[in-house]
Please model this.
Amino acid sequence: MTKSTFHSHSRFDDGQEELEAYIESALTKNFQVFGFSAHAPVNFETDWTMPLESFEEYIDTTKFLKEKYKDKIEIYTGLETDYYPGCTDWRRKKGIEYTIGAVHFLLDEQTGKYLPLDGTREEFEETLEYGFRNDIHALFKAYFSQIREMLMKMPPNIVAHLDVIRKNNSGNTFFDEDDKVYREEVLKTLDIISLTNTIVEVNTGGISRGYVSTPYPSIWVLEACRDMDIPIMVNSDSHHPDSIDFYYDEAYAILKSIGINKQRILYKNEWCDVSL
Ligand SMILES: [Zn+2]
Ligand SMILES: [Zn+2]
Model:
């Protein structure tokens, strides 16, 4: 078993603590591999992405840690990148070894406003009402078609929290995952994922922050990944060194219970399948 995460945030973006605190925690929790994935800078003002001015320091710090801990743990430098009209392609920037591609918001072409998808419940309500006139099907289509466009135009190594739009949907407040349109959108997206050789992450971050009770994506989506031979990877999307393996044992057990026994990770500088 190779314990790893490729999804983590720190004081460089919207997480807490220095990068080194994550490595110290990873060593006490017996990780073999740790990846940093600060939110890449975006071209508008936010309080959650890494400022462009910090990019160099981020790269230098991860490089320093890589060297310092090379006999104890493998460290990789990545970014969680947002896909939106006019976004920067970070995939081949110097020092970047992998990207996790995400859609956290949609651009409202009429107003030029960015509509958050993974914020608070109130923010989701606002996005649905003002961006989509309360048409949840239109929101599904807009979200998943943005993911598909990302996969076709700028495929990342890993797709972030594929069904993050269910973040505020506990008790089916906004929709039912059995909804035909929802399922079609998810499955259409998995088709593109399988063609682009992208990894679907199993993300426990929504649980550690108290939004959802199961990892992203839902079990039925993971079963479809299994059937389509789409590789998965378990990530904690942690924003604090203490939560880097939050819900890991449970996530591994869920995966094994549906017949997924391996994950695809960067290991010894190669993408390879390792057992769970
Ligand atoms: Zn994210
Ligand atoms: Zn994240």
